[in-house]
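Protocol step 4 of 5: obtain the predicted structure for the target chain.
Materials: sequence only (see below). No template structures provided, no constraints applied. The aim of this step is simply to have a reference model before the mutagenesis design in step 5. Sequence pasted as it appears in the construct record:
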Amino acid sequence: MNPIATAARAGQQRGWIELRQSFTNAETLWGYLFPTVILLVVMFFLRGSKVPGTEFSLGAQTLPSTLGMTVAFGGLVSIASMLVTEREDGTLLRAKATPNGMLGYLIGKIVVVSGMTLVSILLLLVPGALLFDGLNLGNPGGWLTLAWVLLIGMVATMPIGAVLGSLLSNPRNMGLIMLPIMGLIATSGIFYPITSLPGWLQGVAQVFPIYWLGLGMRSALLPASLSVVEIGQSWRHLETLLVLGAWAVVGLVVAPGVLRRMARRESGSSVAARREKAMQRTM
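Step 4 output (structure tokens):
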């Protein structure tokens, strides 16, 4: 068998094993459930509020937006966190030492993060569908839209997350990623219609994928009449595809080179130095 195909298959198998193990780990299960419960509670308390200019529940309007946020968070933060953590503990060095090991490693992480993202979406969508009325769940076209937004959203965010993770020296620097992402979430219309924000903030939000993922999910699961509260009073499917596609292209072009450069710099001495620094900080 082709060595690259062998490495890809090994990475896929490793990813499935890691994903299955995540369901037996109490800490990981808490990581699935805690954010879901918090988001559902927030949306539950928003159910009595109305989307401005409509009689539609703000809680129901927020549900699909949080699905888009979940995709972005998984692709940008989870990949970066895994990469920087396993770089410090030597996992990345061991992958580098095997033929086509980096390819298998990255494919494994893609499988893990994709699976975790899908599980998180289901944990939000299933109880959310029971809690909130008015969602457009019976339209096959809506489910098709959800599928392509989900797919292109993961392709658009995972390579960027890998680049961000490769630029960090240790896991304690994850705040450098988290703070800007939380700021973008706050200004991307996830919890309140973006048209209520100043025009310049609307423009900034539209540069990044979080807004477009939220918009795409809303277009899939909300009634067509709710597009009236969006920018241009439209779901803007073409623009969603183009912007997310552009981020996907940028990520797929930039990420391989950045990751190769990072892998070349990995050595036993660099891993040992990072461990020594971590021990000193702990002490």
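Step 4 remarks: The CA atoms of residues 83 and 224 lie 40 Å apart. Residues 3-282 form one domain.
Proceed to step 5.
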